[in-house]
Amino acid sequence: QVQPVESGGGLGQPGGSLRLSCADSHLDEYNIGWFRQAPGKEREGVACLDLRKGATYYGDSVKGRFTIARDNAKNEVYLQMNNLKFEDTGIYFCAARPFRGCVLQPAGYDYWGQGTQVTVSS
């Protein structure tokens, strides 16, 4: 059973970059999604990686700025976040779902990490 573990959160500046990682020895058996939740808001789908298709999907608010990809050497899935904005602040979660395609709805995922805090501030 997969148990994703996130790392790499912290403080970023507007226009800057951060990179989050999601690790588990069984990640290559699942499709992986990244989600975020800001205080008082619902959990939002950020990106999804369909490993079998080699396809990626992004929420509208991060398209062109964030990249989800797999690091085969480390058996990790990372989220590269560029051109950070204040509204990117939140807790970021990595989640896994069996190979059933990619969705950006939290209900579609079976396994969740504990989350890592990202704060964008000047």
Notes on the protein architecture:
The protein is mostly beta strands and 122 residues long. 0% of the residues lie in helices and 47% in strands. It is built from no helices and 11 strands. It has strands spanning 5-7, 10-12, 18-23, 31-37, 44-50, 55-58, 66-71, 76-81, 90-97, 111-112, 116-120. The strands form 2 sheets. Strands 2, 4, 5, 6, 9, 10 and 11 form a 7-stranded mixed sheet that branches. A 4-stranded antiparallel sheet has the order 1-3-8-7, with no helix packed on it. β5 (44-50) and β6 form a beta hairpin. It is globular, with a radius of gyration of 13 Å. It starts with a strand and ends with a strand.
Protein topology:
Elements lengths: L4 E3 L2 E3 L5 E6 L7 E7 L6 E7 L4 E4 L7 E6 L4 E6 L8 E8 L13 E2 L3 E5 L2
Parallel strand pairs: 2-11
Antiparallel strand pairs: 1-3, 3-8, 4-5, 4-9, 5-6, 7-8, 9-10, 9-11
Give the DSSP E fraction (strand runs of 2 or more residues).
over 45%
Structural class, by secondary structure, is mainly beta
What is the terminal separation in angstroms? Answer: 40 Å
Overall geometry comes to globular
User: Could you spell the SSE succession in H and E letters?
Assistant: EEEEEEEEEEE
Give the radius of gyration: 13 Å
The average pLDDT score comes to 95
